[in-house]
């Protein structure tokens, strides 16, 4: 079923755009763009339901429902082995960097200037043996070895202290901000050592150490024109999601993530709660300059996540949904089988998750992070049951990739975003430009998206349904 599209309820953010942005009146061509914002969900039917869908001309793919809340689907062999290998090679070639948590990407932007202090530079010069501009645990040990009591600590004891008082963001390395704080840590380190040796350590102080850093992996970002020049993957996503190509082609770049043993990503949400006072990350640059300068925080507006496994993992590395299909969502005194568990801690409680998916090369996992607003037909409330993460890799390596389908619940802002991305400006065009004109203006997607066709929401190809009850799902 396709939810009808209506204008969003006016908000503070919407009023700012209407009063200052250029040409937001939806004329003939603009209305056709608005029609392309229709969104719908693939009906899950029930857990275990299997349908076959033609996601590629002449090829059927199995799509299996594995959860109802959120709606989660598995699509085996969505990527071919060659496609998986190519994405891994592109990510390696592009350069894998240390992953940050989704929460860090939500916070204030900053700088571009080199504010590294002389102390930090000298500390890195002396102790950063692998020259990556971070200090790992052993490098930090050498940097602090002259402080009284440090050399008497065992390796495990020093690790304990490192986690408790030095590694503020729990990523098992000291960045330049944390290194600068070392100048004021001598007394704190000495006091901690005395307290530790006397046995005066409270049990809850070990919590962060046991749970480990929120995220431990490396990643690369790939542009669509690099990883999908022939649009094969893009067209598959359009067929799977039923969304218009405008939405798919203007969504985020692909993220490729690489994990080694011990690597994980504790349970988190890919998207944020609706907040009319904060802009979506993908549309924030479209706000008027005077208001954009005051934007210090943003939020993620990801309607759908599509995760791909690029290789088998020898042991561990499962994707876990701790509260999928749970009756309630509460993190207070969370119980599983009569035991208190921490659903965020996938290093220790991976097997307690309600749904666990083992990595399998080529397998795609699709789920919805938001409901649909039945009034506006746009992005609705955040579905908190979409909490998920990656369990520890125990043996071998883990490679995944993510496509996030982004939507702003503000109807006019999403249209403006599409205009800018697809047509290179804010004004609606009433005629079609030549492909040469669009290529010259850098809009490679224009030729594919400007065709006046019926919304892809109505053209999802479901060919065969395979299920114990063998009933067809109306779309």
> What is the distance, rounded to the nearest whole angstrom, between the alpha carbons of the first and last residues?
5 Å
Class by SSE composition: alpha+beta
* Number of E-state strands: 21
What Rg is obtained from the alpha carbons, in whole angstroms? 25 Å
Labels describing this entry:
475 residues, Jelly Rolls, Recoverin, domain 1, 2 domains, ten-stranded antiparallel β-sheet, 21 strands, 27% helix, disordered N terminus, disordered C terminus
Structure description:
- There is one protein chain.
- The protein is of the alpha+beta class and 475 residues long.
- It has 2 domains: 344 residues, q2cbj1_9rhob like domain (Jelly Rolls); 94 residues, Recoverin, domain 1 (Orthogonal Bundle), CATH 1.10.238.10.
- Helix content is 27%, strand content 19%.
- The protein has 16 helices and 21 strands.
- It has a 10-stranded antiparallel sheet with strand order 4-6-7-20-9-15-3-2-1-21. Strands 5-8-18-11-14 form a 5-stranded antiparallel sheet, with no helix packed on it. It has a two-stranded antiparallel sheet with strand order 10-19.
- The N terminus and C terminus are likely disordered.
């Amino acid at each position: 079923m396709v939810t009808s599209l209506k204008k969003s309820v006016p908000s503070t953010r919407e009023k700012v755009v209407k009063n200052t942005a250029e040409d937001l009146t939806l004329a003939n061509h603009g209305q056709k763009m608005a029609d392309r914002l229709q969104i719908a969900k693939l009906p899950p039917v029930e857990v275990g339901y299997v349908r076959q869908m033609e996601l590629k001309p002449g090829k059927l793919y199995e799509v299996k429902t594995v959860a109802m809340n959120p709606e989660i689907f598995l699509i085996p062999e969505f990527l071919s082995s060659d496609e998986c290998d190519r994405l891994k090679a592109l990510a390696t070639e592009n350069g894998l960097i240390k992953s940050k948590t989704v929460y860090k990407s939500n916070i204030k932007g900053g700088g571009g200037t080199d504010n590294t202090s002389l102390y930090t530079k000298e500390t890195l010069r002396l102790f950063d043996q692998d020259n990556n501009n971070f200090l790992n645990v052993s490098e930090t040990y050498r940097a602090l070895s002259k402080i009284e009591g440090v050399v008497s600590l065992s390796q495990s004891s020093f690790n304990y202290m490192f986690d408790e008082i030095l590694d503020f963001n729990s990523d098992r390395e000291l960045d330049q901000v944390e290194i600068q704080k070392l100048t004021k840590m001598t007394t704190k380190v000495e006091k901690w050592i005395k307290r530790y040796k006397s046995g005066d350590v409270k049990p809850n102080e070990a919590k962060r150490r046991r749970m480990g850093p929120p995220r431990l992996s490396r990643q690369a970002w790939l542009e669509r024109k690099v990883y999908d020049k022939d649009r094969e993957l893009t067209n598959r996503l359009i067929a799977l999601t039923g969304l218009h190509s405008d939405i798919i082609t203007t969504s985020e770049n692909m993220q490729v993530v690489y994990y080694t043993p011990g690597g994980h990503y504790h349970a988190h949400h890919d998207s944020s709660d609706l907040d009319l006072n904060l802009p979506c990350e993908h549309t924030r640059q479209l706000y008027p300059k005077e208001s954009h300068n005051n934007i210090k925080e943003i939020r993620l507006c990801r309607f759908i996540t599509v995760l791909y496994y690029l290789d088998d993992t020898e042991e561990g590395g499962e994707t876990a949904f701790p509260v999928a299909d749970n009756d309630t969502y509460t993190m207070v005194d969370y119980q599983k089988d009569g035991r208190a568990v921490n659903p965020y801690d996938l290093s220790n409680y991976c097997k307690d998750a309600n749904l666990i998916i083992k990595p399998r090369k080529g397998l795609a996992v699709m789920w919805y992070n938001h409901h649909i607003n039945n009034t506006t037909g746009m992005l609705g409330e955040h579905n908190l049951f979409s909490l998920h993460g990656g369990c520890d890799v125990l043996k071998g390596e883990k490679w995944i990739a993510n496509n996030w389908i982004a939507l702003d619940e503000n109807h006019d802002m999403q249209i403006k975003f599409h205009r800018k991305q697809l047509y290179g400006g804010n004004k609606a065009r009433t005629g079609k430009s030549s492909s040469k004109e669009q290529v010259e203006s850098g809009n490679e997607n224009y030729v594919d998206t400007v065709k006046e066709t019926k919304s892809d929401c109505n053209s999802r190809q479901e060919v065969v349904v395979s299920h114990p009850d063998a009933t067809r799902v109306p779309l």
